[in-house]
TrEMBL record, chain A:
Residues 1-21 form the signal peptide. Pfam families: DUF1501 (PF07394). It comes from Pedobacter panaciterrae. The keyword Repeat does not apply. InterPro entries: Alkaline_phosphatase_core_sf, DUF1501, TAT_signal, TAT_signal_bac_arc. Keywords: Signal. It comes from the Bacteria. This is DUF1501 domain-containing protein.
Length: 472, 788
């Protein structure tokens, strides 16, 4: 059997038509006729996820620095790192993020993200909210941002799955809560994430099974189609189950045989570039994201990986641990932006760096709605393990956005310079972030589907608005 | 007397019009088409044929026009479309005659200069007859008859959902009767409810305008009245909905323009004086199914049918002119009942002994036998109930102690075939073992008022047991049913320790409502009683035989599991119309009479001829849920994740090992059933839902992520490899191996062509790799995965 790209495209369009006609979930009659507009400024989204709550005052929004000393007042500590200048006049980052600071002329720094107030804090609940725009629990299974995009726009290159999630394992703490939003929800499994828990083993996910040669793989596939064609079941004619099974198997085969699958093979990268990215799983995930972008990926999420009390979830030793976290992200993120710009792809690729909320040494929750504390913080710090931003803070978080129509060298929003270092200018909430992403992609703000006869919008009630100030 | 007969005759002839018109349309069109081939040579061989077509066609047009006139006198039709149709029809008949005249001139008088005129006339006639035909078809079938079937048509999805006949009403040019007024007003209010209430209702009052009640609607908005009875053109509401979709003033301002048909209904309603009868408002805008049980009288046995299910089907088939096809063969039947009742494939030995079984009632006897395999039965239906009751071994909520597992209770309830009323009672008024369903899932932190556990209980009880969607109404008055916010809170209060404050769209209102049933006919709840007592009262009220809703809902769910589609669809919207109300009512009534015995219900369905009809496949999944669906037999199903995995386990090698077991039912099955293990990437890919929300159906379509899991997923491939090693050790003979794999997977021997292909793949002495690859191909065959 001779498989080629044209056949595949034909199949995909037939699939899309079938899905359209299937109408389950029914495209809401209320929705705009055409969800894709011509004003799109981006085709691809890369989400760089700082899992666990990244402290703004120790990363992209540094305040007054107080070095560690035994017997210091906890309340006096706003930042545990020095401030260092970035390429933007008057804008400083926390020490350790110089490389990213040097590419800030290519993007926008947001210093006023305000996470939801959902009471006693659970990371996965806020992550659920960030990624779906809905607060759990929900009576309808809410789709992930990437699933919405996969559903509305489909894959950019039919061979590459539309929604790829790199770096998260689902065997760690709170895994069930993570699974609850790493899903296409009511949109259907078809639009769910293609999971690459470990980028260094990512190639295995898109190759014939381990230990199976390419020729055997081809023979096996041929055997399958030969048996289908000779089965007396053929007399039953075609129906949607049979067709969708055959079609999906064809797609899988094509992906696993395609030259594009090489995007998952990091060993093909020149050593000097590989080394810049190789700061660990996250860095390699950034490299894979870049390679996938070159082959036409639609939505890629790369995470520092959420595991309770690990990574950015600094319940202790905040200062010491952030040194390492910054090393993990600084080089790869900056290199990703530079590489994308160099290849001319940054214009159509929207890169977002974000976290579910921020951290503070004193305030748990937000200043006007403090919630049950989870970290004990002595007023007088004797041990360096108590020196860091250990409590969960929802009233002022930093985000970065690059490319895809976003302003260059711009800063949006502001937090107070004194504790509580909360948002005091241009607060921005998750509905606006999602709508801004959809706006860049040309997805109509009122996109929705009827689920059990109720309209379910990309953002609750379809009310969110994009923040036009972010765009150039 | 003579006059009377004459009238009868005229009417009859008039009714022949829709039949007669097909002749001129076909003949004249064909004449015009043939004429195109003579453009170069007028006197081509086709000439005499064209002449004949033209003569017959023109004659037909005259006759049709005359018959059409008679039909018009009949008075059933009126309106702009009719006028157009009528005059174009007459003009076409006249054109036809004129064309004939010129043809005569050319042919008999050799006036070849008039060929151009003749051709012009002929083509005009052909166009005329098409246009007239089109308008005529619109009159009989409705203007969206053709276009609504197109996937890109805005009417596509709503096609056929309404039984409202505007044409019928329009026929009565005089005053509408009271009944017609109610009907028209109900229709208008349904249009308003679906398209306008959202912004012009009790929740939002944009432009000071409300349309959700008679007085508020006529009062109008900030710019005065929007409805001027008798004058659509002066009515703001009609003006605004008729604007082009891109006009800035068009209504609805958000979303899609109204369908032409709906605009026309509103226009007609206003023209007729905008009737809004007071007693009409009692009529529900949304279809509401009857609550009380009903025991329709069984049709008399006929056609050698005795199972009551078949008697109803027989009646349905007669009414819909469907012929009984012959029943499926033994092999197909056995495969069906095994998969449907115990979730497993029949083995080759089962197939053989079934085919050798000579007892005339062997099918019923084998169903009985399968139903008596308590463990297998329970392990299969466990998955269905886990989905519905969102019970799982892992999931959100457990981490903070906010969720409870009920597997032990559920397994034992199924195993002992607990009567359904008792089953429901124990879930609603639970013991420690069964409280998981009603306690819901509690996340850490503050949750939206519509998602507190009391409201979850209200929503889930409504959905699962009553096929009723309370989700909208738990936030605001519903736009899709007549349920109000009050109703939802009153129901939720049954599950609450203290009366909940009503929140509208998550904002406190300061109002409270006493606990009460959704149907007051079902009894009362003592608002002051402790929650345990209130739940007990609810349970007692719900399981009463008077609660037809509860029993229809479960009968419909079981039917849907077995037949691939519910009598009512979707299965969670029991207010929708079943394809046979009698069958549903009778089964529900009989179910109660036979002590709510689920196995008995399954027995009744699976032993019916109705169940044994050949399965039906559909090109598109949407056709299954289409309101115009006609039952012709079981809708082909795809194996569930659990059925597929268990089939692989039984045929090839067990997929799971002991350490995967999450619930130990204290039995020793030959392999670990998929319903006993935690969800994993393999089961998820195959469609097992994460049980965060109630799930009452599964997606039967395959997708890329699933195919990837099956193509290169480690779990699946390692199982196949281990299986291949076992098989290699057991089978020295290629022929035998091929025969056995076919028998075990597909329940049949391979045909010649298949043997040839398989042999080629295996080679003379098959290695592990080759066997593994054959396994892979076999279990991915649609024939393996589809329950047909």
């Amino acid at each position: 059997m001779n498989w080629n790209r044209r056949d595949f495209l034909k199949n995909t369009s037939a699939a899309t038509l079938a899905a359209m006609a299937a109408g389950i979930p029914l495209t809401n009659l209320l929705s705009s006729c055409n969800s894709k507009s011509n004003h799109a400024t981006a085709d691809t989204v890369i989400l760089l996820w700082m899992a666990g709550g990244m402290a703004h005052t120790d990363t992209f929004d540094p305040k007054k620095y107080t070095p560690f000393s035994k017997g210091m007042q906890a309340n006096s500590v706003l930042s545990t790192f020095k401030s260092v200048p970035t390429i933007l006049d008057g804008i400083n980052f926390s020490e350790g993020l110089q490389s990213i600071g040097n590419v800030m002329d290519k993007g926008t720094l947001i210093r006023s993200y305000v996470a939801a107030d959902m009471g006693h804090i659970l990371h996965s609940r806020h992550q659920y909210h960030w990624h779906t725009c809905y607060k759990p629990p929900q009576s309808v299974s809410a789709p992930h941002l990437g699933s919405w995009i996969a559903k509305e726009l489909g894959p950019l290159n039919p061979v590459i799955p539309a929604f790829i999630d790199i770096g998260q394992r689902f065997t760690l703490g709170e895994a069930e809560e993570l699974k609850a939003f790493h899903t296409a929800g009511f949109l259907g499994n078809e639009f769910g994430p293609f999971l690459i828990p470990d980028p260094s083993a990512g190639l295995e996910s898109v190759q014939p099974p381990v230990g199976m040669s390419s020729s055997r793989f081809e023979k096996r596939n041929k055997l399958y189609y030969d048996l289908i064609s000779k089965s007396p079941m053929g007399e039953y004619g075609s129906d949607y189950q049979k067709e969708s099974l055959k079609r999906s198997m064809e797609q899988a085969y094509i992906l696993l045989k395609s030259p594009e699958a090489k995007a998952f093979d990091l060993s093909q990268e020149p050593k000097e570039i590989y080394d810049i990215y190789n700061t660990g799983k996250f860095g390699l995930g950034c490299l894979m994201a870049r390679r996938l972008t070159e082959q036409g990926a639609r939505f890629i999420s790369v995470t520092t990986e959420y595991e309770p009390f690990k990574g950015w979830d600094t319940h202790d030793n905040g200062y010491t641990r952030l040194i390492d976290m910054k090393k993990q992200i600084d080089g790869p993120v900056a290199q990703l932006i530079k590489d994308l710009e160099k290849s001319g792809r940054l214009d159509r690729t929207l890169v977002i760096l974000a976290s579910e909320f921020s951290r503070d040494m004193m305030v748990e929750g937000r200043p006007d709605a403090k919630v049950q504390e989870q970290v004990e913080q002595p007023d007088i710090i004797q041990d360096i393990k108590n020196y860091g931003m250990h409590r969960h803070f929802t009233d002022g978080c930093s985000m970065l956005m690059f490319g895809g129509g976003i302003k260059k060298g711009s800063v949006y929003g502001k937090t107070a310079d004194e504790r509580p270092c909360k948002t005091i200018e241009n607060p921005i909430v998750i509905d606006q972030i999602h709508q801004s992403i959809y706006h860049a992609l040309g997805i109509a703000p009122d996109t929705n589907y009827l689920v059990e006869k109720r309209p379910f919008y990309t953002t609750p009630d379809g009310l969110g608005k994009p923040v036009m100030d972010l765009f150039s | 007397m003579l006059q009377h007969i004459a009238f009868w005759l005229w009417d009859f002839l008039g009714h022949l019009h829709p039949l007669a018109v097909h002749f001129p349309v076909a003949l004249l069109l064909f004449a015009a088409i043939l004429e195109l081939f003579t453009l170069k040579n007028f006197n081509s061989k086709l000439r005499s044929g064209i002449d004949a077509l033209l003569i017959a066609g023109s004659l037909g047009a005259i006759i049709s026009a005359a018959l059409g006139w008679l039909l018009y006198q009949d008075g059933d039709y009126s309106g702009d479309v009719l006028t157009l149709h009528q005059w174009i029809g007459f003009a076409t008949a006249a054109l036809g005659v004129l064309t004939l005249f010129f043809l005569y001139q050319i042919r008999k008088k050799d006036k070849f200069k008039q060929v151009k005129v003749y051709r012009g006339l002929l083509f005009s006639t052909a166009i005329g007859v098409s246009v007239a035909g089109h308008f005529g078809a619109n009159l009989t079938h409705g203007s969206d008859f053709l276009s609504s079937t197109l996937p890109w048509s805005k009417d596509y999805e709503t096609k056929g959902s309404d039984n409202f006949r505007l044409v019928a009403l329009k026929g009565d040019t005089a005053k509408l009767t009271k009944k017609q007024e109610v009907e028209l007003n109900t229709e208008v209010r349904a249009i308003l409810a679906h398209n306008c209430y959202k912004c012009h209702g009790s929740e939002k009052v944009k432009g000071d305008l409300r349309l959700d009640g008679k007085h508020v609607a006529f009062k109008g908005g900030e710019n005065g009245p929007v409805i001027v009875p008798g004058n659509p053109q002066e009515s703001e509401i009609f003006k605004r909905i008729s604007l082009p979709a891109d006009h800035k003033d068009v209504m609805p301002s958000k979303g899609k323009k109204l369908a032409e048909k709906d605009i026309e209904i509103v226009r007609f309603w206003i023209e007729k004086g905008a009737p809004w009868p007071d007693d009409g408002t009692k009529q529900n805008v949304f279809r509401v199914a009857k609550l009380e049980p009903r025991n329709p009288v069984l049709p008399a046995p006929s056609n050698n049918l005795s199972n009551p299910v078949d008697l109803w089907t027989n009646q349905y088939f007669a009414k819909n002119k469907i012929k009984w096809p012959s029943l499926v063969d033994d092999r197909t039947y056995l495969r069906r009942i095994y998969l449907d009742i115990i979730g497993l494939l029949p083995g080759p030995a089962d197939l053989e002994s079934f085919s050798k079984d000579a007892r005339p009632d062997k099918r019923a006897l084998w169903v009985k036998k399968l139903l008596s395999l308590d463990n297998d039965y329970a392990l299969h239906w466990l998955s269905f109930w886990n989905d519905a009751l969102r019970n799982d071994y892992s999931g959100t909520g457990y981490i903070t102690g906010g969720r409870f597992n009920i597997t032990d209770w559920l397994f034992k309830s199924l195993k002992t075939n607990k009567p359904y009323d008792q089953f429901v009672k124990e879930l609603i008024s639970p013991s420690e073992e069964s409280k998981g369903f009603i306690e819901g899932i509690k996340w850490r932190g503050v949750v939206n008022a519509s998602q507190r556990t009391e409201m979850q209980a209200a929503q889930n009880v409504s959905q699962v047991f009553l096929g009723l969607n309370l989700k909208c109404a738990s936030c605001h008055n519903s736009f899709i049913s007549d349920l109000k916010l009050d109703d939802a809170y009153a129901f939720a209060n049954i599950f609450a320790d203290t009366t909940l404050e009503i929140n509208r769209c998550d904002k406190p209102t300061g109002k409270y409502v006493d606990a009460r049933m959704l149907w007051k006919e079902l009894g009362t709840i003592d608002n002051k009683a402790p929650v345990k007592e209130k739940r007990k009262q609810l349970a007692e009220n719900l399981i009463k035989p008077e609660d037809g809703r509860l029993y229809r809902t479960i009968v419909n769910r079981i039917w849907s599991q077995l037949m691939g589609r519910g009598l009512v669809e979707p299965v969670d919207v029991m207010d929708n119309e079943p394809w046979s109300q009698d069958l549903l009512d009778w089964m529900a009534f009989n179910f109660v009479a036979s002590k709510a015995d689920l196995k008995e219900l399954i027995y009744q369905i699976t032993t019916s001829n109705t169940y044994q009809l050949p399965s039906v496949g559909f090109k598109e999944v949407a056709q299954v849920s289409n309101p115009n669906y006609k039952f012709k037999g079981m809708v082909r199903k795809r194996m569930s994740a659990e059925q597929f995995t268990d089939a692989v386990s039984s045929v090839i090698t067990p997929v799971f090992v002991d350490s995967n077991i999450k619930y130990n039912p204290q039995i020793r099955p030959s392999f670990i059933r998929a319903s006993l293990v935690a969800n994993n990437s393999f089961l998820t890919a195959l469609g097992r839902p994460n049980r965060e929300t109630v799930a009452t159906s599964r997606d039967s379509q395959a997708n890329l992520l699933q195919a990837l899991e099956l193509t290169n997923g480690w779990r699946f491939n390692s199982v196949l490899k281990i299986g291949a090693e076992h098989w290699k050790a057991n089978y020295k003979n290629t022929d035998l191996l091929i025969k056995d794999i076919y028998l075990k997977t597909l329940g049949r021997e391979p045909v010649e062509k298949e043997i040839k292909i398989a042999k080629q793949a295996l080679g003379k002495s098959p290695g592990v790799d080759a066997i593994q690859d054959l396994f892979w191909a076999m279990v991915l065959l649609p024939e393996f995965q589809i329950i047909y």
